[in-house]
């Protein structure tokens, strides 16, 4: 704990510490008195006989610097878990017991957050509860037990394993309370940075502290000052962002600030007090960001190489998610990764998630002179004149181009070569061999001269890619297979989840449920699933089909369901972000695609302990050929598929055993840690 002039709140907090139930291995308290001028030192001394307390007094340096000093002292001991809190946060008696038990129960997690409830100094005004973001303003949490986004673990109640600090991580001393105004977010920035390095966070909802909210902090001016500091912290935490800037600030943010000021004026004229406050809060946040950009200490230059990840994407799917995942892995390894692709359906959602993690994401859409035949020469000229300068402005040390299909991404490939940038490629589908027009073949021969490495998400995908492009690759090009991964902490078998999912979907607990998670597109053949239900419902009257996803075939599929009289048997969920809350409802997951690069939904279902059935096509076959957790059926053979599925539906014991094997296979071969090791090993020696 760091404190500065904390005598007003420390008596209540330290009294709560005296009531703590000690964990089995004991505990100790380190308090760093950060240059205060009140009676904090005397107050701490009065508790020395009642607590396992060590006090350190230092010159004023700010909260983050004080905590870093406390970490150095704690590392001298042998404790595995370092718990952080504030001098105005009073713990419940079982606080340490719950954090200790949580850490023991989840050894694969390194950061643990606990609940923070409000200890109001006076009853808050109604408008505060209604309008003010209580989380960022007063550090009040409302998070369920389980894996958690690291940015939701806050400093008044967090625990971190010793190994994180032994790896060199510390709090950023540019953030947090210090002399005068300051940028907020030291613990949030720390947790996000640690997560980027591969350490996962878990929220322990039962470990509670009560954060004292002083009466003066409920005034509008105080709340707006915190919005300003929140904006300053956001600027310090900002990752690489190639968007156009003016005086170091993104132009869109300056425009938004102007709009918010205009909105304040309009709300005042309309005498809309709520709108006035909300506009002012947003304006103060933006003002803090701009202030930090103009007058604050600059962010340190990014370590490692600058890696630009790009593609020719059409919609958010497995390849795009893998690209974002790789950007995070590289950032966690100390590189300045960025995603730059054409705008596709789902781009804004994906980009927002990356930006929240401090990773740049922007639109890069060069004219397509490989992917489109018409106007190819004109498009190539346009790309050289306009897109090549844009690519150079990214200042990338290495360009990663993802191929979803033959030639899709090749224009970006050639442009990177044209800009004299080294390249790596990833292959995300098993596309058929192709022969190229001499004009394109000549460009391929040029472009592949800059390619240092190629990996594919499956053996089949690599073999198909090499059939088309192998002749263009240099003999020394690195080749490997790096399958997709599944977060086994997010996707896991759970009877409670199964019942909850069925309840949300309106399914009976004893219904037979088959399902598919994926785009409703021709590649996935969802119409074959509807035909399958029609063929099996006579034998299995309680059979239900769940189609989780959206796509161009949705309206056509709903008509097919109506025509076959299956309206009560087929459920369309639309897009589902948290598919881990849907998959446990299934008895079987089916993927009857005509082709796949890998099939992420297949391994997600297997991680949930759900047996899987897939067509014997490249990508899916790479997962299931030797699997005991699923089986393959011939593509286009409806009778064989119906027979195989019926056999599984009629044998719950066999399904249960397959589900156990499926889960074990995911834990042994497809975890994020395995993916991270493979990706970083691929890049080793390829980055400048």
TrEMBL record:
Tagged with keyword Transferase: yes
Keywords: Transferase
Record domain Glycosyl transferase family: where: 503-663
Record's keyword annotation contains Transferase: yes
SUPFAM superfamilies tied to this protein: Nucleotide-diphospho-sugar transferases, UDP-Glycosyltransferase/glycogen phosphorylase
Positions of the Glycosyltransferase 2-like domain: 1-165
Top-level lineage group: Bacteria
TM segment ranges: none
Domain Glycosyltransferase subfamily 4-like N-terminal span(s) in chain numbering: 317-490
GO MF annotation: an example: glycosyltransferase activity
Pfam family, one: Glycos_transf_1
Name of the protein: Glycosyltransferase
Organism: Massilia glaciei
């Amino acid at each position: 704990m760091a404190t500065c002039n904390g005598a007003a709140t420390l008596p209540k907090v330290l009294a709560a510490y005296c009531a703590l139930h000690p964990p089995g291995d004991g505990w100790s308290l380190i308090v760093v008195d950060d240059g205060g001028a009140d009676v904090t030192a005397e107050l701490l001394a009065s508790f020395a006989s009642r607590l396992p307390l060590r006090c350190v007094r230092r010159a004023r340096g700010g909260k983050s610097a004080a905590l870093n000093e406390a970490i150095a002292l704690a590392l001298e001991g042998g404790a595995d878990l370092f718990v952080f809190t504030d001098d105005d946060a009073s713990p419940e008696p079982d606080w340490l017991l719950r954090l200790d038990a949580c850490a023991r129960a989840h050894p694969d997690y390194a950061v643990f957050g606990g609940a923070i409830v409000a200890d109001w100094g006076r009853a808050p005004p109604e408008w505060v509860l209604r309008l003010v973001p209580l989380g960022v303003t007063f550090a009040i949490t409302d998070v369920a037990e389980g894996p958690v986004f690291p940015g939701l673990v806050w400093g008044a109640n967090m625990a971190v394993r010793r190994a994180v600090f032994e790896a060199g991580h510390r709090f950023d001393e540019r953030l947090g309370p210090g002399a005068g105004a300051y940028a907020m977010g030291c613990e949030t920035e720390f947790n996000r940075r640690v997560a980027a390095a591969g350490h996962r966070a878990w929220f322990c909802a039962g470990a509670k502290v009560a954060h004292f909210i002083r009466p003066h902090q409920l005034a509008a001016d105080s709340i707006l000052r915190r919005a300003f500091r929140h904006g300053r912290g956001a600027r310090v935490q900002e990752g690489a962002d190639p968007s156009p800037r003016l005086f170091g600030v993104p132009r869109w943010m300056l425009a938004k600030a102007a709009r918010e000021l205009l909105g304040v004026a309009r709300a005042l004229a309309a005498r809309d007090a709520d709108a006035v406050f909300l506009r002012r809060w947003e304006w103060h946040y933006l003002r803090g960001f701009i202030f930090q950009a103009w007058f604050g200490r600059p962010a340190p230059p990014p370590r490692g190489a600058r890696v630009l990840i790009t593609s020719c994407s059409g919609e958010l799917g497995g390849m795009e998610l893998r690209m974002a995942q790789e950007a995070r892995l590289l950032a966690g390894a100390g590189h300045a990764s960025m995603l730059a692709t054409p705008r596709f359906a789902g781009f804004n959602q994906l980009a927002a998630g990356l930006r929240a993690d401090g990773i740049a994401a922007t639109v890069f859409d060069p004219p397509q002179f490989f992917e489109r035949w018409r106007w190819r020469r004109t498009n190539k000229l346009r790309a050289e004149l306009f897109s090549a300068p844009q690519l150079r402005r990214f200042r990338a040390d290495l360009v990663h181009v993802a191929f979803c299909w033959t030639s899709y991404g090749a224009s970006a490939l050639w442009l990177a070569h044209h800009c004299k940038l080294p390249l790596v490629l990833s292959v995300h589908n098993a596309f058929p061999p192709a022969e190229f027009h001499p004009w394109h073949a000549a460009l391929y021969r040029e472009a592949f001269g800059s390619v240092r490495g190629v990996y594919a998400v499956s053996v089949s995908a690599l073999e198909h890619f090499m059939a088309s492009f192998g002749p263009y690759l240099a003999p020394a090009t690195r080749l490997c297979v790096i399958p997709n991964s599944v977060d086994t902490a997010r996707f896991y078998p759970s009877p409670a989840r199964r019942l909850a999912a069925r309840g949300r979907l309106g399914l009976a607990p004893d219904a037979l449920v088959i399902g598919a998670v994926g785009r409703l597109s021709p590649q996935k053949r969802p119409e074959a699933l509807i035909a399958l239900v029609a063929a099996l419902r006579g034998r299995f009257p309680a059979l239900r089909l769940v189609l989780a996803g959206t796509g161009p075939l949705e309206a056509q599929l709903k008509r097919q369901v109506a025509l076959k009289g299956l309206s009560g048997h087929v459920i369309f969920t639309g897009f589902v972000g948290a598919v881990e809350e849907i998959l446990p409802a299934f008895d079987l997951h089916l993927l009857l695609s005509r082709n796949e690069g890998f099939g992420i939904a297949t391994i997600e279902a297997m991680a949930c302990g759900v047996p899987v059935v897939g067509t014997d096509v490249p990508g899916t076959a790479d997962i299931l050929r030797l699997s005991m957790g699923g089986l393959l059926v011939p593509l286009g053979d409806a009778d064989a598929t119906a027979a195989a599925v019926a056999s599984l539906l009629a044998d719950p014991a066999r399904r249960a055993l397959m589900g156990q094997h499926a889960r074990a296979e995911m834990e042994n071969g497809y975890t994020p840690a395995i993916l991270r090791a493979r990706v970083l090993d691929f890049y080793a020696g390829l980055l400048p």
